[in-house]
Amino acid sequence: MQLIQMLPLTCLLLSLMIPQALLAQKPNGVENPSYYNIGGVLSNNESESHFATVIAHLNFDQQYVPRGTTYYDKTIRIDKNPIKTALNVCKHLISRRVYAVVVSHEPTGDLSPAAVSYTSGFYQIPVIGISSREAAFSDKNIHVSFLRTVPPYYHQADVWLEILNHFGYTKVIIIHSSDTDGRAVLGRFQTTSQTNYDDIDVRATVESIVEFEPKLESFSSYLMDMKTAQSRVYLLYASQEDAHVIFRDAAIHNMTEYGHIWIVTEQALSANNTPIGILGLKLNNAENETDHIKDAIYILASAIKEMTVNETITEAPKDCDDSGVIWESGKRLFGYLKTRNIRGQTGQVGFDDNGDRMYAEYDVINVHENHSFVKVGSFHYDSEKRKMRLKINDSSITWPGNTGKKPEGIMIPTHLKVLTIEEKPFVYARKLLDDEIDCADDEVVCPHFNISNGNGKWATPRSLQHTNGSVFLPTEQEYCCKGYCIDLLKALAQRINFTYDLALSPDGQFGHYQLKNHTTGIGTTVKKEWNGLIGELVAERADLIVAPLTINPERAEFIEFSKPFKYQGITILEKKPSRSSTLVSFLQPFSNTLWILVMVSVHVVALVLYLLDRFSPFGRFKMSSNDGTEEDALNLSSAIWFAWGVLLNSGIGEGTPRSFSARVLGMVWAGFAMIIVASYTANLAAFLVLERPKTKLTGINDARLRNTMENLTCATVKGSSVDMYFRRQVELSNMYRTMEANNYDTAEKAIQDVKEGKLMAFIWDSSRLEYEASKDCELVTAGELFGRSGYGIGLQKGSPWTDAVTLAILDFHESGFMESLDKEWIFHGNVQQCEQFEKTPNTLGLKNMAGVFILVGAGIVGGIGLIIIEVVYKKHQIKKQKKMEIARHAADKWRGTIEKRKTLRASLAMQRQYNVGLNSVSKSVSQNCEKTRYPILPPLPRTPERAWPKDQEYIVNRKNNNANKPPPRYMPTYATDVSHLIV
Is the pTM of the predicted complex or chain greater than 0.90? Predict the structure, then answer.
């Protein structure tokens, strides 16, 4: 004992003998310190003495301390006053250039260790805590350089999850205080459950969270709410004082008896009234401060040794007066400390990113009679697998109620909350009329599920009704439901003995998931969030989904399914294709090309008939004519009329060919017309009477569905199982991208659009589409079923009703009950009616023959239009002929006038010659007299205006002015404009 006490003094003498100038040399020539001062803020003399002893032994351990390096201890006593503790750290530790500080825990609180962390962290000096377990030290924004060799309290949530997994409990209630550590326990539990337990079948889910203020006086109100939950597994984080109150009130409400499971933390386990059967945790070496001191020092030495090999360590800060000094080597040293993973006195020692101890080992404690604590298991480090492992001896556990039988962990309710959705023929929903008080005998009240408060709310009843063991809660807008699923629900309730409240889906959807980012304490994670019926079941606001709910992998990951109550698949609904055009249905027997050839043939034959009859020597005249008159030849118009008359089998009348060659051609044309007319008649009957087109599509593999360029619209319901099916199928991805933009919110709207022709193909569950096709013979399903699956009852994960519901459904299949539901609700006997309708020949109606009537109407309108054109044209011709006659009469009259004038001039000329020959003098005198008596009028202008009636006034005026004068020798004749005539 004396030798041990002398070791620190011996080490000190040896260190003085070594020259202080001797420094460790790095290969690159950069020098590192040869001695390191390690500070300690400890709680008692024993810890200080042990601290010095461990450092003295460390200097002789060449595995951790290389030759030429020495460690020295610098310790102070921790003070209850955190300010005084911080001042002592500056005065007695930082002033001595400590490279790290080991801090113990003051018994009355964590303020003094926090003061050491703040002060040292300001200069980036690493601090190693050996007893501080509060969650606040994990916050690196505050405690920037703090590590600890003990785990925080909230790490016990990891052991909770292992215990729950061991016993198979998947639904729990967490009770925690509202302080930092209590919330940290809840966050750790939820985060670890989501990240470390991928299999949802074994993942523990939190049914309810009970948060209370510390320093409780009563916990009874919380316990009353907990009784309504299904889970009977309680995870408790509370202080010793609060745990005492909780256990006291739980015993009063009989919640510590058999069927209830309590799993608590270390603090709650130390309460003096812990009931029998409680399972708690106890940290190994939690109170052994000396072992933690040794582990802290050796971890520090290991980090410094590695750092001296890789980097240069500068001297530590020497005082607290320089507020701008930040020790960069301290930052890097803290990083090296977090990477340590060694086997120490307290077990395997490692640190996470927050500097918290990993691989902490716990004992699982069970409370037996007389308040005795018995170790029934351990949570320890497995060196072979290099991970923590839980080991529990189940046979040694005493459960609440002082029994050795493990409780189920849940309370099976007998009154269930059931959700459904309106989907014919499985569920028919109608609004309750104002004058109606109750639903009919075959109906069940089903109000819309109210989620306005965020937790799901089953409405307050207006009138509480009991029918077939069910409890209904109507609302102001009540609905009555009946159908396939409603009958199935009634049969299930009667068979496995439960009551229920029924409500319709809050958003009218089956449910689909969306990936959303969620920020947690360890980062951002991506979670699937469900809506619709699935969302309510996942959120545990409902117990059952009784609806045509398709079983698929995406849903089965989050909810339970019973065995299918109906097997079905996916098919395509479309409207039976109509004929291409009802107005020209009579043209369908022949193709367009054939019709064109017939039209051309008519006119070609008519032209050839005309030519044959025109140029034949026996075609133009009769061989022997009694009256000697010539017969008209066959003109082109008559030939065309003859060709059309033969083709249409109408009377020919006049205008037939007369030559032998033309008549031979006419006989051949008549035979051609007979064949064409007979073929047309036969095909017309086939097209309009016997043809009943089935479908336009052959099934899901139809190229028109997969070709995005094809003008074919198809759709399904958003977020449905069919939508999920297309998402999974890679070969249908091109088709899904096209139809995704057309998808509908409800099947009702899509089916209505198919009937109206707005949607060409609706892809949906075969049961519903077969029902629609049997109800409306104009609709038909195309192709074979694909994506075969089944409808199942949806339940919560781990629901106690799963097996009972499955067994009941199997029994229903064997007894024929499901087949009777099919006949009653899905087919209705309409299939036979549609089949009989298909075998009956179609009757021609106005829709089929409307084109013929339109053609007749067009002929009538065309005839009227042509007669109007003929009348107008004839009037124009008559008017033109009258004008020509007037012009011709005027020209003849003008010619006569010209001839008279010429004759008169010739006579005058002869008379003048005669007079000149007799008496030239007397002639001159007489001429002068005539000129004076009868002056010659100036000639009228020879313009077209002379022919108009207005010139008549001018002539009359001239006559009146010369009334006493003899008339002129000639009077010009007025006529219409004949300037265009050549005389």
Answer: no
